[in-house]
Amino acid sequence: MPDAQKILSDMNERSREVFRRVVEGYLDSGEPVGSRTLTRVMNEKISAATVRNVMQDLEHLGLLDSPHVSAGRVPTQLGLRMFVDGLLEVGQVSEADRERIDASGDDSDVATLLDRVGKTLSGITRGASLVLAPKQEAPIRHIEFVSLGAERALVVLVFADGQVENRVFQPPPGQTASSMREAANFLNALAGGRTLSELRQTIVQDMTRRRQEIDVLAQALVDAGLALWENPGEQSERLIVRGQANLLEGDARDVDRIRSLFEDLEMKRDIAEYLHLAEAGDGVRIFIGSENKLFSLSGSSLVVSPYMNADRKIIGAVGVIGPTRLNYGRIVPIVDYTAQLVGRLVSQRGKG
Fold this sequence. Notes:
Layout: H1 4-10, H2 13-29, H3 35-41, H4 48-60, E1 64-65, E2 74-75, H5 77-86, H6 95-103, H7 110-125, E3 128-132, E4 140-147, E5 153-159, E6 164-169, H8 177-191, H9 196-223, E7 227-230, E8 238-241, H10 249-279, E9 285-288, E10 300-308, E11 314-323, H11 328-351
Antiparallel strand pairs: 1-2, 3-11, 4-5, 5-6, 7-8, 9-10, 10-11
Helix pairs in contact: 2-4, 3-4, 6-11, 7-11, 9-10
């Protein structure tokens, strides 16, 4: 995709205004915006022919499209993205909307709170609401990884209190269904009432110990001139043993031990990466059209904002799904305000 910010900065003032008014007109009406319409609202008094020339230039840049011959222009997905990132003027949440959102947080039960927030958000924005429940930081009873394809996997978490949570993540390259099963078996044997973050910390500490043991054993072989490091400190590092015939029985055992430690270290690197990906949460995002794989066919947009607990950790998200011509200037602050409210309320209930 072209660098949208560079395109925007390279535009002159006239092109930038034409582009902004076409997008705003389309978001407001859902209809193509024509040159004659623009001549009536432009700050600079210019002819319809001049406006058409500017629109043709913007179309050549991939920012506008003409759905029908001489029927005006609409923004492309790239154009919408550039508008949202560089020209969008975000308004304030109205007092009426603020009161409705605040009123949805009266219930003490988290599940009921999230349900009411979702319904309120949908009613205010006239879009479909998206409310992701708080991520659990409870002890793990069982963990399972399920491959969903080459670039997607599902982690199924069963918590000690009986709750079940599914999270989709992108596994490290080269992972197979078999390696995921091995990772799950290892973690289930280690779980023992630990949370996800505690599990990952335990594995990272174990990796550090393994690394130190490898270094000690390998250094003795290197000092004796029986081995050398290739790509030390990198993921592709390996210990090359030379003069195999000169290895004494004790040295041979050290080589076998190093080989075993390397295999263990590689497995734990992968498992630590799994846990990191399972814990991760997205930041504030606006997905437009095919930028979001879930909605690429329907041409919808998603405005989503995470909410955080008292420790500023992302534990869930709220959002609005609607057509690409959403009123972003109004929707963005509403979603942001709702996310902040939900984070505050969920944190309060957690203390209770």
